[in-house]
Amino acid sequence: MVAGTASDAGKSVLTAGICRVLVRRGVRVAPFKGQNMSLNSFVTRDGAEIGRAQAMQAQAARVEPSALMNPVLLKPGGDRSSQVVLLGKPVGEMSARGYHGDGGLQGDLVDVVADCLATLGGAYDAVVCEGAGSPAEINLRRTDIVNLGLARRANLPALLVGDIDRGGVFAAFYGTTALLPPEQQALLAGYVVNKFRGDVTLLEPGLDMLHGLTGRRTFGVVPYARGLTIDEEDGLHVRSYAAGPPYGRDTLRVAAIPLPLMSNFTDLDALAAEPGVEVRFTDRPEDVAAADLAVLPGTRGTVRALEWLRASGLAAAVERRAAEGRPVLGICGGFQILAERIEDDIESRAGTVRGLGLLPVRVRFAARKTLARPQGEEYGEPVAGYEIHHGVAEVLGGDEQFLDGCRNGPVWGTHWHGSLESDGFRRAFLRRVAAVAGRDFTPAPGTAFGALREDQLDRVADLVEEHLDTAALLRLIEDGAPAGLPFVPPGAP
Questions:
Q1: Does the 252-446 domain belong in CATH 3.30.1330.90?
Q2: 252-446: same fold as 2-229+454-479?
Q3: At a CB cut-off of 8 Å and minimum separation 6, what does 240 contact?
Q4: Which of 116, 129, 332, 406 is catalytic?
Q5: 129 catalytic per annotation
Q6: What is stated as this protein's family in its record (predicted)?
Q7: pLDDT at site 231
Q8: Strands 262-263 and 81-86, how do they pair?
């Protein structure tokens, strides 16, 4: 198990790196995360929805993603409720208290999660399990199905990752260890320092003192690596692929609007990988007005996002763009926002709501979620994607079909996530956007997004190989946690 001192400490990336290191050595390995909370998700070939990070880790392990790898996915719909996705299918909305509290659903899922882990363990040589948040969340320990409670049940050795770039990493390591009960401390083999800048020899005395205080070694210090583009759970930024200058004369500027409850904004990564395409998130109407392409990405709250767009002035900026004949793209929830009318008695229960009316489309929310992996041809190029939505779109016209949606003048809309990862289609789409925007932009002919992703996974594996004691990691996998690890008081309350 790879646990972390906090969210975004580097668990997802380190798990992927360890998976790729193992598969390089001929080990059949699978990733696992018992419970994930994220709005970035993926659809497997058999129509199951899982966290996108686990799909990325499966790619690192060179195996097909499966619902077994992420049996519980929580998709926030607001501050106090989430949609619960169990074994790839939604089973309802639930409050935090209804899920975590006494008699809540989480306590009933222990066996489901353990069974999935056992099934993977029987099919692969090794399973690398990612924790969630911090294992020292003492208020949630009783029903833990993802951190060291699961490790205890399955007898998994654990590493604890800390982000030193945030500061306080020694306190985080010590405090996390000291808040674990004795039976869980016995599985915590040691630490990994992540995102270190500077001279590691200056850090080593502190690592020696930490070893003296806890009896646990540090398995490695991973340096801060610029330009890593590995999918995260919810980190809001466009991944930089150092794509380089434009292939043609002009740069194409893309403004992505950060909608409330934004989901699967990884769709923008493929655009950012194109030389000469500049992508950034912005909630400033003037930035949206100035861009060559405005993108409305996915959202788990279509009506809520629409209300925010209108209150912020961004809806007016998008409408002006369309009236002036300037390109707009809506994906999934962003596509629904561009429709004439939205009937929603499922997600927001707002009833019938007027959309922006930029596409001749009517959307009706259905109780059953669409989970699909469509593929076809568009603009003469093969294209594939995945769909995750309750809204059903009825296309009533437009200038041309666009994937399952349509184009109406300078406005495109589709439910397909991931379509821009199809290289030929992405270039064909960008050529049309540039023509409508009046930019002398030519897509570079050789950009292969899949290859770029593979290169990034190999880069993470190289960091693991170079900066972690991989021989010791392999011994953990073979033999489990070392015997006799000391107890660090006070332990769990």
A1: no
A2: yes
A3: 227, 229, 272
A4: 332
A5: no
A6: Belongs to the CobB/CobQ family. CobQ subfamily.
A7: 63
A8: unpaired
